[in-house]
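Below is one such protein, fold included:
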Amino acid sequence: MQNEWQKASESLSNIIVLSNPNNQPVTIKGDSEGARCIGVGTDAAVFQSYCAPEYAFKIYAEDRLDKIEAEERVYQQLEGSSFFSTCFASTDRFLVLSYEEGITLFDCLLQGVHIPERVIHDVEDAREYVRQKALNPRDIHLKNILMQNGRAKILDVSEYIQPGNDYRWEHLKEAYGRYYHLMDGRPIPFWLLETIRKWYHQRQKNFPSFEDFMHFVLKHITFKNK
């Protein structure tokens, strides 16, 4: 198994990942004919190798390499749970994870794919499992929840050692329970989802409460989808 991922990782040697200010997604420089990018975050980008497609390689930005060891320890603590990827190994540049099939909840909204209630319950169960392991289940959002055959898989555990509650999942759960039936099955344009994301990060400044924020969002979604 080790030789397989090591051979596959050779195709990533020309790829450089650079972080950006203001919590923006990383920039990728260089390319590889033997791999494809399957995800981009604010600290790292994830690639799948064509010669060993069962692995995903999470390559960190050059100034974020100190996070590799910490995230590997989190995966070790969560080992055995079906809600999370498996971490096979790490190097000084990347983590070697199991490749997970499925569609993110973000893409479900883009495509109008139904998100069953079972997925929401799975995330709740996963969060409870994380707490049982003395970790903090935060930074759970639409782009790092994967739907696999109607069940949830959570992709990014890098912030589980950080303190505090960012309330991102609590707000998503509330929005699902109260408002999702109004948009279920209706594709939402990418530009609108990205605009909502930016509004959300500014909500404390612009909206008295999360409910006021959601009313504002729904007004725009309803108008644009008529």
DSSP finds eight helices and ten strands in the chain. The CA atoms of residues 84 and 150 lie 15 Å apart. The two ends are 52 Å apart (CA to CA). The helical segments are 2-9, 67-77, 105-111, 117-132, 168-183, 190-201, 203-206, 210-224.
